[in-house]
């Protein structure tokens, strides 16, 4: 087409970037802060970092990053884009090396002048040339900084992975790792405890998900779902949960990574959406697969007049939920008063008879995405059988948008929706929203499961006797609540 059309397309993208950077700078000016640069260190309590977490700042930066990514994809030659995407596997490989050799902690101790690769090699007991090249690849992707030739230091992104622990401690724990038959490293020790969870998230992803991802194409091409990619990669027969039970370091890493994931979510995902305070006095909310009870605690605070139950697997209730609740004065008071109860129950079984016809709400957050559709339908049918006529089922999970507009599927559903991104951005904000699609495929690697579109949620809930009435979406993401009633 004509040159002017191309220019107009590029300029539309540039304009979105300019408008949103202007908005961020205006907000920063009003609040007397500046936006951090990539060369700063990530200090979570720093006013500049807390500024970046404000809803208006996130909204503007999401639009700007969406436009910037689309601009790069437009300006870069197609074969270079494909080459970069096909080679992207080097990044998780390098990230895992850096995290597991304690480089981030080493650089924290070295300070802003950084450290020469020969000194890194001596301290981390690795070969200097390879560690230099690993760090340069990461610095090229804006993780770490090469301050002078062969001298590297932390930057804003690498420092976000800091466990805060002494490097010597990290290294001694990493060396105690236990090799499983599949070569999986089960780090035994408290490496991930009392951290922000980001190192756990990075290592979980770059270790077992990365290996599993390499096995997925063969399974998909062979149309073979008799095993998960994780089972194939790890040469493990059991479920993902069995895997965590078998390797204690892996369970610790997963839980810590989950904490990081929860913290990455905008704060409004907690107890948002449904009007919890509107429930009548004494109503029972059952959080099915409630984990450590984070959400029950959030709801208990805004609706102190309702009763809440955390339901989860026996191991989780015993090893995670109970210690979490008894370890906090505020939470144990809720247990003592009977406001909150903890119940070990396998949700693949019928709900216990003492709960039949009692709950006002069955709530499930980040649970349906762990299960293949046919299996979760079975669970939802059990909830349906135990639900009184006016009971609500509230599913809180990612709602996957198509990469194009969809005006059809939502007909008849009361929706709180995101405004459509401005043209020419992709309807799902493209790379700015890539984490959702990574999570979607991670579900496939672990469980042969998935994140779902609205259409997929409709089919799934209707097959179990539930109908989606309302959808709430967070302002800053596609984390959603689907409020269903009995059909
Ligand atoms: C991703 S976690 C979500 C936890 C919590 N709802 C949250 O949002 O933080 C999934 C939860 O489902 C639980 N789960 C898995 N299989 C289960 C089963 N068969 N019965 C009950 N809970 C189960 C896990 O133990 C875990 O706590």
Automatic annotation (TrEMBL):
<feature type="domain" description="O-methyltransferase dimerisation">
    <location>
        <begin position="86"/>
        <end position="160"/>
    </location>
</feature>
<dbReference type="Pfam" id="PF00891">
    <property type="entry name" value="Methyltransf_2"/>
</dbReference>
<protein>
    <submittedName>
        <fullName>O-methyltransferase</fullName>
    </submittedName>
</protein>
<dbReference type="InterPro" id="IPR016461">
    <property type="entry name" value="COMT-like"/>
</dbReference>
<dbReference type="InterPro" id="IPR029063">
    <property type="entry name" value="SAM-dependent_MTases_sf"/>
</dbReference>
<dbReference type="GO" id="GO:0046983">
    <property type="term" value="F:protein dimerization activity"/>
</dbReference>
<dbReference type="Pfam" id="PF08100">
    <property type="entry name" value="Dimerisation"/>
</dbReference>
<dbReference type="InterPro" id="IPR036388">
    <property type="entry name" value="WH-like_DNA-bd_sf"/>
</dbReference>
<feature type="domain" description="O-methyltransferase C-terminal">
    <location>
        <begin position="283"/>
        <end position="409"/>
    </location>
</feature>
<dbReference type="GO" id="GO:0008171">
    <property type="term" value="F:O-methyltransferase activity"/>
</dbReference>
<dbReference type="InterPro" id="IPR012967">
    <property type="entry name" value="COMT_dimerisation"/>
</dbReference>
<keyword id="KW-0489">Methyltransferase</keyword>
<keyword id="KW-0949">S-adenosyl-L-methionine</keyword>
<dbReference type="InterPro" id="IPR036390">
    <property type="entry name" value="WH_DNA-bd_sf"/>
</dbReference>
<dbReference type="GO" id="GO:0032259">
    <property type="term" value="P:methylation"/>
</dbReference>
<dbReference type="InterPro" id="IPR001077">
    <property type="entry name" value="COMT_C"/>
</dbReference>
<keyword id="KW-0808">Transferase</keyword>
């Amino acid at each position: 087409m004509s040159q002017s059309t191309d220019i107009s397309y590029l300029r539309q993208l540039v304009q979105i970037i300019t408008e949103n950077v202007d908005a961020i700078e205006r907000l920063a000016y009003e609040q007397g802060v500046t936006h951090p640069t990539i060369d700063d260190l990530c200090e979570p309590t720093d006013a500049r970092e807390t500024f970046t977490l404000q809803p208006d700042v996130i909204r503007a930066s999401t639009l700007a990053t969406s436009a910037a990514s689309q601009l790069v994809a437009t300006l870069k030659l197609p074969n270079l884009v494909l080459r970069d995407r096909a080679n992207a596997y080097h990044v998780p490989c390098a990230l895992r090396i850096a995290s597991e050799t304690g480089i981030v902690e080493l650089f924290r101790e070295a300070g802003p002048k950084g450290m020469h690769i020969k000194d890194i090699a001596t301290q981390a007991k690795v070969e200097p040339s390879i560690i230099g090249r690993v760090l340069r690849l990461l610095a090229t992707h804006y993780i770490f900084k090469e301050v002078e030739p062969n001298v590297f230091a932390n930057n804003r992104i690498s420092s976000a992975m800091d466990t805060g622990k002494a490097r010597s401690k990290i290294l001694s724990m990493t060396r105690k790792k236990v090799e499983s038959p599949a070569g999986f490293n089960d780090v035994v020790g408290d490496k991930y405890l009392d951290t922000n969870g980001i190192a756990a998230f990075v290592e979980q992803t770059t270790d077992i998900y990365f290996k599993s991802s390499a096995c997925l194409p063969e399974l998909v091409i062979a149309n073979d779902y008799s095993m998960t990619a994780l089972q194939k990669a790890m040469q493990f027969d059991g479920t993902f949960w069995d895997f965590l039970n078998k390797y204690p370091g892996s369970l610790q890493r997963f839980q810590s990574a989950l904490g990081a994931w929860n913290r990455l979510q905008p704060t409004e995902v907690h107890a948002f959406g449904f009007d919890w305070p509107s429930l009548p006095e004494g109503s029972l909310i059952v959080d099915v697969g409630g984990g450590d009870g984070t959400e029950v605690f959030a709801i208990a605070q805004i609706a102190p007049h309702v009763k809440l139950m955390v339901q989860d697997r026996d191991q989780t209730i015993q090893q995670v939920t109970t210690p979490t609740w008894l370890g906090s004065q505020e939470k144990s008071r809720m247990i003592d008063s009977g406001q909150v109860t903890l119940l070990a129950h396998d949700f693949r079984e019928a709900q216990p008879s003492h709960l039949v016809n009692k709950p006002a709400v069955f709530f499930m957050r980040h649970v349906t995405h762990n299960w293949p559709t046919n299996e979760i339908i079975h669970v939802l049918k059990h909830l349906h059988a135990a639900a009184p006529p006016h009971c609500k089922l509230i599913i809180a999970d990612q709602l996957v948008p198509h990469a194009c507009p969809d005006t059809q599927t939502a007909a008849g559903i009361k929706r709180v929706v995101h405004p459509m991104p401005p043209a020419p951005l992709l309807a799902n904000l493209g790379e700015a929203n890539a984490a959702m699609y990574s999570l979607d495929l991670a579900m496939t690697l672990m469980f042969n499961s998935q994140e779902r579109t609205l259409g997929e949620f409709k089919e799934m809930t209707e097959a179990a006797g539930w109908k989606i009435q309302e959808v709430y979406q967070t302002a800053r993401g596609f984390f959603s609540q689907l409020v269903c009633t009995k059909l």
